[in-house]
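TL;DR need structure tokens for one chain.
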Amino acid sequence: MSTYKITYFNGRGRGELTRLLLVAAGQKFEDERVTREEWQKLKPNMPQGTVPVLTVNGKMLPQSGAINRYLARKLDFYGKTNEEMTTNDIIMETVTDFRSKLIQAHLEQDDAKKAELFKNIKEQTIPNFIKQMENLLCENNDGSGFFVGSAITVGDLALLDVMEVVIGLILPTALDQSEKLKAHRERVSKSPRIKEWLEKRPKTDM
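>> reply
TL;DR here they are.
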């Protein structure tokens, strides 16, 4: 049986989707959360000097996108066909692009620019993202289930992860424009393993 350890900071960020995949699969893992001070000591030993890093049976894997695709394949959360896997790739890439805009605004130091960035995110970026995700969801069973197939896959978890940030920190009403995505979030977050994780995980921000 494989052993897993995820090394990341005490936050969600680029590490949470990896945690969600392992949780959804019922896979035990070591959740190593390092401080900024500890990171300076660990950094030289990391494969590319970055986190997250997933250690599988002693082998370190860098790059969050590669990690998540590796786990999705290995744990059967990627889809059954090439088309389903490609749909999940599209979702993950779209979420990555969306998240980068949130991070850009979050890191902006100029207060006026920061306010303008978040205004644009609330009025344009989030609604556009919601529409894109709803369109993808509706391609499978008219949006009444999951993005592909009949069970949770990595795309469902990727959307749940980023919307936790949006609803919790930026725009609580973000899903009011899409009843289908609101119901989808409910389905995914209430699945037993995910529900337990969301209730017990450390309280952090982005």
